[in-house]
Amino acid sequence: MGELDNTVNVVMLLLVLGTGIAATACAIAAAYVYLRPGRDRSAGDRLAKRWLVATAILGFTAIGLRFVWVLLL
After folding, report:
1. Beta carbons within 8 Å of 51's beta carbon, 6+ residues apart
2. Start-to-end CA span in the chain (Å)
3. Whether the predicted pLDDT of 70 surpasses 70
4. How many helices (H) and strands (E) in the chain?
5. Most confident of 2-11, 19-28, 64-73
6. pTM for the full model?
Protein backbone atom coordinates (compact mmCIF):
# COMPACT_ATOMS: atom_id res chain seq x y z
CA MET A 1 0.00 0.00 0.00
CA GLY A 2 2.98 2.31 0.52
CA GLU A 3 3.94 2.45 -3.16
CA LEU A 4 0.35 3.19 -4.16
CA ASP A 5 0.25 6.13 -1.76
CA ASN A 6 3.48 7.49 -3.23
CA THR A 7 2.11 7.14 -6.77
CA VAL A 8 -1.11 8.93 -5.84
CA ASN A 9 0.88 11.77 -4.26
CA VAL A 10 3.06 12.18 -7.36
CA VAL A 11 0.06 12.13 -9.72
CA MET A 12 -1.91 14.62 -7.64
CA LEU A 13 1.12 16.89 -7.31
CA LEU A 14 1.57 16.88 -11.08
CA LEU A 15 -2.13 17.59 -11.65
CA VAL A 16 -2.22 20.49 -9.18
CA LEU A 17 1.00 21.99 -10.53
CA GLY A 18 -0.10 21.52 -14.13
CA THR A 19 -3.44 23.26 -13.65
CA GLY A 20 -1.78 26.03 -11.63
CA ILE A 21 0.82 26.64 -14.34
CA ALA A 22 -1.89 26.60 -17.01
CA ALA A 23 -3.92 29.15 -15.02
CA THR A 24 -0.85 31.35 -14.73
CA ALA A 25 -0.22 31.12 -18.48
CA CYS A 26 -3.85 32.08 -19.18
CA ALA A 27 -3.57 35.10 -16.88
CA ILE A 28 -0.40 36.24 -18.63
CA ALA A 29 -2.08 35.76 -22.02
CA ALA A 30 -5.07 37.83 -20.85
CA ALA A 31 -2.78 40.66 -19.75
CA TYR A 32 -0.86 40.53 -23.03
CA VAL A 33 -4.01 40.56 -25.15
CA TYR A 34 -5.53 43.41 -23.14
CA LEU A 35 -2.42 45.60 -23.09
CA ARG A 36 -1.04 45.18 -26.60
CA PRO A 37 -1.20 48.37 -28.66
CA GLY A 38 -2.57 48.92 -32.13
CA ARG A 39 -5.59 46.62 -32.05
CA ASP A 40 -9.31 47.23 -31.75
CA ARG A 41 -9.97 47.85 -28.07
CA SER A 42 -13.33 46.05 -27.89
CA ALA A 43 -11.92 42.93 -29.58
CA GLY A 44 -9.03 42.93 -27.09
CA ASP A 45 -11.48 43.25 -24.20
CA ARG A 46 -13.55 40.30 -25.39
CA LEU A 47 -10.50 38.10 -25.92
CA ALA A 48 -9.04 39.08 -22.54
CA LYS A 49 -12.33 38.18 -20.85
CA ARG A 50 -12.19 34.73 -22.45
CA TRP A 51 -8.65 34.23 -21.18
CA LEU A 52 -9.75 35.34 -17.72
CA VAL A 53 -12.63 32.85 -17.73
CA ALA A 54 -10.14 30.11 -18.58
CA THR A 55 -7.92 31.37 -15.76
CA ALA A 56 -10.78 31.18 -13.28
CA ILE A 57 -11.80 27.69 -14.37
CA LEU A 58 -8.25 26.36 -14.15
CA GLY A 59 -7.63 28.14 -10.84
CA PHE A 60 -10.72 26.70 -9.20
CA THR A 61 -9.85 23.30 -10.63
CA ALA A 62 -6.41 23.50 -9.02
CA ILE A 63 -7.99 24.42 -5.68
CA GLY A 64 -10.52 21.60 -6.00
CA LEU A 65 -7.79 19.10 -6.85
CA ARG A 66 -5.88 20.21 -3.76
CA PHE A 67 -8.91 19.44 -1.58
CA VAL A 68 -9.33 16.05 -3.28
CA TRP A 69 -5.67 15.36 -2.62
CA VAL A 70 -6.14 16.15 1.08
CA LEU A 71 -9.09 13.76 1.18
CA LEU A 72 -6.98 11.02 -0.37
CA LEU A 73 -4.28 11.31 2.31
Report:
1. 26, 27, 29, 30, 33
2. 12
3. yes
4. 2, 0
5. 19-28
6. 0.85
- What are the percentages of helix, strand and coil residues in the chain, rounded to 5? 90, 0, 10
Q: Is the separation of the CB atoms in 33 and 45 below 8 Å?
A: no
Q: Which residues contact 49 (CB under 8 A, 6 or more apart)?
A: 30
Q: How many residues does the chain have?
A: 73
Label residue 26 exposed, middle or buried (CB < 10 Å: 0-12, 13-18, 19+): buried
Other CB atoms within a 10 A radius of the CB of residue 62 amount to: 19
Q: Which 3 state secondary structure label does DSSP give 20?
A: helix
